[in-house]
Design brief:
binds 5'-O-[(L-methionyl)-sulphamoyl]adenosine
Length: 467
């Protein structure tokens, strides 16, 4: 089986923050898991670099937009490196390969495009037209700014021609939208009167030239969606190898649902291309109860979390807070507590305690231990296949708790059965080392080495809690 796993491509006007890290880390974990299952996976991420918003941000810093994008996209790459996130391709929408593919795609879409004079309310923060209904007190609800009234000639994509077909794709299950709330929301949106949408801008200079009209640039969202095909070689022979043969899985949060679950399949249908197989929409989280925003000043830089808790510590803390797919809240003061209880005490302590008592003599594990670990492995596989990352972690940590209790109950240090008890535990730990690999790859390696050498080295240093 082949899988193409993608994240949204992130706007470079912002630093790579915890929100971006959350999706990208989840994609990395899923990639590692499916590879372990023997699948061939292509993991794609990148940065969205065109449009008025980026041009304005560059101007504010007194930089040429390309120079600005070069710098900011490097920061994203660096952050992913610090989090041990291993993608196969990092697309930048200023790449020549992307630009070429986008132009080619538009040529193939010619019959579904028309020209019209248009007037609408545009929010640069969202990079989209808003309807009167969407405004709150005349302001964009997300950016608290009055949208700009724009009147210009635009090129439009005939979205309406494809809405029925998109609905059928979803209803037949050919396009899976998960979790169910996102599927329902998409179907509800399809029942509203959605309009054709503009795919070009007349006055935005920072963008890819519109092939049929040199005075226009391609609308940033339209171009951004095409990263999913440009990255794997749209317009060349290598394209079909992934797009046609792989299961296509998009990960995103609900803020950009409509673009992905409605516009994107419609665009692909119009271009006579295969549509995605699955779109997984995870929740949107707040930090200490508030939306993460520059104005509030509560934007979390994932690099800070790595510096404080180590790379695997950060990876664990990010995915163990609330179920993937649901909204949640990151409580920063809970990080230390969770790190100490689950990593330093839970996992770290288990490995240290057992290895301290281990000798070279190893016996076959007993049936009750084999059954217990098998139960974890079975649930683990079920949850992982449904992208239930939080539940997967819970399953592993239940096994860790079981092992710690098993030591307390059986007291190997004073037991006649010491060798058997320790062998059982060593077996369970080797299972745990295997199971945590997608989440905590470095720790997994360390435990495997420690088991080989029968020697324990501290995995997670306990941290002092300030409270
Ligand atoms: N550039 C567009 C996406 C184009 S994809 C063809 C964009 N960029 S973004 O930088 O705003 O990234 C939005 C995405 O970042 C979300 O869909 C989600 O993946 C992630 N998140 C950003 N903040 C988040 C939270 N607070 N919570 C969860 N995910 C968040 O939209």
């Amino acid at each position: 089986m082949k899988k193409l796993i993608t994240t949204p491509i992130y706007y470079v006007n912002d630093i790579a923050h915890l929100g971006h890290a959350y999706t990208t880390l989840a994609a990395d974990v899923l990639t590692r898991f499916f590879r372990e299952q023997g699948e061939q996976v292509f993991f794609l991420t990148g940065t969205d670099e065109h449009g008025a918003k980026i041009a304005e941000s560059a101007k504010k810093e007194g930089k040429d937009p390309k120079e600005f994008c070069d710098e900011k996209s490097e920061l994203f790459k660096k952050t992913w490196e610090n989090l041990n996130i291993k993608y196969d391709h990092f697309v930048r929408t200023t790449d020549e390969k992307h630009e070429k593919a986008v132009k080619k795609f538009l040529e193939n879409l010619k019959d579904s495009i028309y020209e019209k004079e248009y007037e609408g309310l545009y929010c640069t923060g969202c990079e989209k037209f808003l309807t009167e209904k969407e405004l709150v007190d005349g302001l964009c609800p997300d950016h608290k700014k009055e949208p700009e009234k724009i009147k210009e000639k635009n090129y439009f994509f005939k979205l309406k021609d494809y809405l029925n077909k998109v609905e059928k794709l979803i209803e037949s299950g050919k396009l899976k939208i998960e979790p169910d709330f996102a599927r329902k929301e998409t179907l509800a949106l399809l029942k509203q009167d959605l309009d054709d949408f503009s795919i070009s801008r007349q006055k935005v200079k920072w963008g890819i030239e519109f092939p049929f009209d040199k005075n226009q640039t391609i609308y940033v969202w339209f171009e951004a969606l095409l990263n999913y095909v440009s990255s794997i070689g749209y317009g060349t022979d290598e394209f079909n190898e992934w797009w046609d043969d792989a299961e296509i899985v998009h990960l995103l949060a609900k803020d950009i649902l409509k673009f992905h679950t409605i516009y994107w399949p419609a665009i692909l249908l119009a271009a006579k291309q295969k549509t995605p197989d699955k779109e997984f929409i995870h929740g949107f989280f707040t930090v200490d109860g508030q939306k993460m925003s520059k104005t509030i000043g509560n934007v979390i830089d994932p690099n800070d979390i790595v510096n404080e808790f180590g790379v695997d510590g950060a990876r664990y803390l990010l995915l163990s807070q609330f179920p993937f797919g649901q909204d949640g809240d990151f409580k920063k003061e809970k990080f230390i507590e969770k790190y100490n209880s689950d990593l330093a005490n839970g996992l770290g302590n288990l490995v240290a305690r057992v290895l301290k008592l281990a000798t070279d003599k190893k016996l076959e594990p007993e049936k009750n231990i084999l059954d217990r670990t098998k139960q974890t492995r079975d649930n683990y596989l079920e949850y992982f296949k449904d992208f239930k990352l939080f539940e997967v972690l819970n399953e592993i940590w239940k096994l860790i708790a079981f092992c710690n209790e098993y030591i307390d109950k059986n007291k190997p240090w004073e037991s006649e059965n010491r060798e058997q008890i320790i062998s059982n535990l060593l077996y369970a730990i080797s299972e745990i080392a295997f199971l945590i690999e997608p989440f905590l790859p470095e720790t997994s390696e360390k435990i495997k080495k420690q088991l080989e050498n029968n020697k324990s080295i501290i995995l997670f240093k306990r941290m002092l809690s300030i409270t």
